[in-house]
Amino acid sequence: MTPVTSPPRGHGAGEGVSGTPDPAARGRAADPEAERSLQAAFDAAVAADERIEPRDWMPDAYRSTLVRQIAQHAHSEIIGMQPEANWITRAPSLRRKAILMAKVQDEAGHGLYLYGAAETLGTGRDELLDKLHTGRQKYSSIFNYPTLTWADVGAIGWLVDGAAITNQVPLCRCSYGPYARAMVRICKEESFHQRQGYELLLALARGTEAQRAMAQDAVDRWWWPSLMMFGPPDDESAHSAQSMAWKIKRHSNDELRQRFVDICVPQAEALGLTLPDPELRWNEERGHWDFGAIDWQEFREVLKGNGPCNEQRLNQRRAAHENGAWVREAAAAHAAKQAARAAQGAASAPRTARS
Amino acid sequence: MTATAPQALATLPLADDALILSHRLGEWAGHAPVLEEEMALANIALDLLGQARALYAGLAEVLGGEDEIAFLREERAFRNCQLVEQPNGDFAHTMVRQLFFSAYQQPLYARLSPVLPLAAKAASETAYHRDHAEQWTLRLGDGTEESHARTQRAADALWRYTGELFQPVEGLDVAWQELAEEWHADIRDVFGRAGLTVPEGPSEGAWSAGAGRQGLHTEPFGRLLAEMQHLHRSHPGATW
Ligand SMILES: [Fe+2]
Ligand SMILES: [Fe+2]
Prior knowledge:
The complex is a heterodimer of chains A (355) and B (240). Chain A has 355 residues and is an all-alpha fold. Chain A is built from 14 helices and two strands, in the order H-H-H-H-H-H-H-H-H-H-H-E-E-H-H-H. In chain A, a hairpin with a 4-residue loop joins strand 1 and strand 2. Chain A is globular, with a radius of gyration of 24 Å. Chain B is mostly helical and 240 residues long. Chain B is built from ten helices and no strands. Chain B has helices at 12-26, 35-58, 60-63, 66-71, 82-85, 91-112, 119-142, 145-158, 176-194, 219-234. In chain B, helix 2 (35-58) packs antiparallel against helix 7 (119-142), helix 6 (91-112) crosses helix 8 and helix 7 crosses helix 8 (145-158). Chain B is globular and about 55 Å long. Bound molecules: fe (ii) ion (2 copies).
């Protein structure tokens, strides 16, 4: 991993980002005494559950961890638009069509908040998108599965947005202020999505035989990938320990996965659908649902790029970006011409007055 | 439907326009040139879908529920203008289509607001759509050589679908000629500022049988409906 140079203190949101490092900041970092006291202040703030803000000093590794995590999250939001957008033009009722369009739009909005949060750490959206497009940064593997029927839209809402909420509610208390605040807004909308997905599946489960079968098939396909969304088991998780210490992360992968299973089992029952795991049973002693072994081989394969839709998703994202290049260039050229015209107007005004 | 007085169906063309353009804009989801446009295009699509649903609700007694109207009519029963059914093309094509349409829909709604309950709200929504399309027309017309060329090409290609907009709709008491003049002045103004040329070609197809308002559509429309209606029609009587 390449070390990230800390932008200078005061390098906040909206100012020029990812620019040249401030020489003063470099000088400061070279002074070990000052560095130690800054580190101590940072540690104390994290220990006291205070928020770290963009203008505060933070360790380089904390900054780079956050940028990596927020970027991956932002990428997941915008790639996650694709499997659901796949059904916008085929939604079977106008009400569902409106709900689905609004949901996909929400995900774009989540992407915007999160790229904004990453920008407060000194890394701009263009740079992050470039890393996504060139495969140097990842997005959630769940979106590498296809949406084959309308019921998949419901299963994604119920299970994928549901798992995302379980993962993300603790992030509302994340030590980094802008990320935590973005997550508060996002979680509110994700919980709408989760309820809408559940409600969609409920309508199918109570509908015709064909609709019920469609719902069951979707849940069968999305259940295990949803459990994988919590990441590898705790003993194999590469970044967990340090992130917990920094209070970027508050619960382990396995803890969150268990919480999710415990929430879903009674909901599946209420839907009248089954979960595709013969080993699911209530464990009185643990006070949790036991569940079967996850196929981590599949997880690793999808992560490596061999999932059913990895190429398709990334290709569509790249194509949207490349096909939009002339639009972005035109907007920039127009803005530059406008500025030049305004400057010329201002310069020529006094001359006109004199003549 | 044939026995129904035209008065009762007067708002059907407006509703179909809104539904079909909303559908086309929905096709952009996940393909827009910047994230901000994902938001904006979805916003416009949602506004239009909302307008369509409100107008269909007013037609329920004559035509049935909104899903019946949207998903179970055949192509020839749709009354939308041909402009809104045109495929998206590139971003310039979509924006010029939007400008042409919103610059028509906005003053039309404004004129109907005394008699059509939803029209006042819809007029303010479409004012935003028109403004958004105008801003992009200015950027693209003025921006680069490529963007200028694409935008001019879009205008030239879409021009022939604009004449139909001002064909009187039976049952809508609107000064159509005045609306047309206002529209032309508006487009001339925006195009002038964008450095674009107002097309000179015919603004209507040469086919005397009519156009969208008579239920005669262009070839891409059949495929649009096939996609939109397929799932609903595959499960007769199902609720979603
Ligand atoms: Fe989201
Ligand atoms: Fe969501």
